[in-house]
Amino acid sequence: MTERQLQPLLHELVGVVLAPTSALGDRAGQIRPAGVQGVFHADARVLSRAELRIDDREPEALAHGPDGPHGARFVGLARWLGDPGADPTVRVERARRAGPHGVDEEISVVSTAAVPVRAVVSVDLGCDLAPIEVVKSGGADTPIEAGSGQPGRVRWAADGITVTVTGEGARVDTDPATAPRLSWPVDLGPGGTATVRWRLRVDDPRAVVTAPPGEPNWSRPVVRADDRRLVRLLDRSLDDLRGLRLAEPAAPADVFLGAGVPWFLTLFGRDSLWAARMMLPLGTELAAGTLRVLARRQGARLDPATGEAPGKILHELRRHEFAMLGGGLRLPPAYYGTVDATMLWVALLHDAWRWGLSADQIEPLLPHLEAALGWLGEHADADGDGLVEYVDTTGHGLTNQGWKDSGDAVRFRDGRLAAPPIVLAEVQGYAYQAAVGGADLLDAFGRPGADRWRGYADALATRFRAAFWVDGPHGPHPALALDRDKRPVDSLTSNIGHLLGTGLLSGEEEAQVAHLLTGDALAGGFGLRTMSTGDAGFSPLSYHCGSIWAHDTAIALAGLARAGFREGALGLAEGLLGAAEAFDHRLPELYGGDDRTLLGRPVPYPAACRPQAWSAAAAVLVLHAATGLHPDVPNGRVALRPLAGPELGAVSVQGLRVAGARVDVHVDATGHATLANLPPTLTLTPAVPAPRRAPDSAVQA
């Protein structure tokens, strides 16, 4: 029987990151030559082993926790050393910190014993330079033979990458018959401490991403909240987002967010765009950098091999072909196989404009806006039926090209897979929003074509209404998609939450979608399930058919809050905040969609990225919904629709940004909101009407 090639699990690993470097080890702090453990730099595993021993014995693991925004600290015991008796008197502390070009470790042997302690501290090393896709496939490369030149130094070199480990004052053993080893003898008097250090540095001139200079240019607001879970989640998320910042080597000032550790720490069109959009309440600089980076790589020609088309926005960027072991998926280094990134690029430009992105930054992007709209009009609808679809024509690209891009993500209610070309529901909402927002930008900057795109949006809404609404066990709802034969894929999924606020739905239709999003079938777990429990394809640990994604939940939450469906938004917020506590305030890419009553905490998805950019940025979106701050800088007004109040509690935020100015919002426990430091060019609009309640059924299929 052939053994399966399995993706390695990482839910119990402890990660540190300062992009483009990340490190994953076990809860004892060891980096073992197994699975996905290692130090990674820009799509290559530059260290596959770093095992600590004291007198050739592993310390017994005791505890671990964060050590600053890019570090972790591990505490273990060496109970064979020190005083006899039940109480341990020798502990080992290991602090690991990621940097943009490697990692640093500090190992301390701490004695409270009354007797002297003598020991040898050693670290066994290894390097295989395995590409990330090989690791993700469950494979590994043969360790590279190490060389030792200068004292205290171990070096590996291959494929244009040079990796150097230096141990201060260490003895180096590079006998080919054993793992390279750094060792230090330590001699402690009673109550003494000995500390040794080693560091790893990477020289990787072929990397397609690099660390940006300086500190983040977004605001770090001061938040006080009755629900302290929100504060803890935001603090950890902003630390992680700081660590996920990337740039291209030729344009280091244009910062974007890498998608996630370890699989996707590079430029991802959809992920980087959504994360930047969620971060707009903290400033427009990240949005501007993300827009410019993707504009430089905007499609210019038709190329079926890469999915490129004129005006299309990139999906992902790698140093070489991304080829999974076992055949099948093979993606070129610059891959355009995404149906939604182009519309999301337009939506980010429009939203950044409303938050105050200056005209001098928008105007150079207007030709790219027109090209993106051109793709929407000329290339996004291959069969000419007025709806946006996708199909992989290569046979080795992504079968599904929306955000749910696993091969089994698009399923009928009875579990059957839909055949491509596929027309996704949320993509039609993105297209509508891009057309209307693009038209507003064209008008505002004196460019032609706005009427064409408003007409396009009206026609799209009519076609969507006729083609997508189906009747299901929970009432009428938009189908997940249309298949090759334009049959509605009638499963009930979280995709419909992305339609809120796009303008594609009528008020009555939004009310019905809100009703569906807040029922137990979708919202009975710690957030919003990707597929309802009533669908045959549902599995709580399916990547896209029953699991819960933090960003997906936050998008629906924000849409519900802005549309006035307070009760539903609060329910999703409670789920996310509960999950955040269970995951030490670092929300993973996704987690299980089990009922909250199963364990009282979410079940981990074992291969989820953590940290993940749009999961971390979801914390900012929850804060944004809590304050309800919605600026429209071009039209000189700001609205407040706070979710905070009697149920969520009071929230006070100092340091949000509107039009570059620092703005403070306070919402008291009754829901009364006040706004301070608003620029004089902006006016606060009157209070909004009372919250809406989703009826039992609002529309008929």
UniProtKB/TrEMBL annotation:
<dbReference type="InterPro" id="IPR008928">
    <property type="entry name" value="6-hairpin_glycosidase_sf"/>
</dbReference>
<dbReference type="InterPro" id="IPR054491">
    <property type="entry name" value="MGH1-like_GH"/>
</dbReference>
<feature type="domain" description="Mannosylglycerate hydrolase MGH1-like glycoside hydrolase">
    <location>
        <begin position="335"/>
        <end position="581"/>
    </location>
</feature>
<dbReference type="Pfam" id="PF14742">
    <property type="entry name" value="GDE_N_bis"/>
</dbReference>
<feature type="domain" description="Putative glycogen debranching enzyme N-terminal">
    <location>
        <begin position="20"/>
        <end position="199"/>
    </location>
</feature>
<dbReference type="InterPro" id="IPR012341">
    <property type="entry name" value="6hp_glycosidase-like_sf"/>
</dbReference>
<protein>
    <submittedName>
        <fullName>Glycogen debranching enzyme</fullName>
    </submittedName>
</protein>
<dbReference type="Pfam" id="PF22422">
    <property type="entry name" value="MGH1-like_GH"/>
</dbReference>
<dbReference type="InterPro" id="IPR032856">
    <property type="entry name" value="GDE_N_bis"/>
</dbReference>
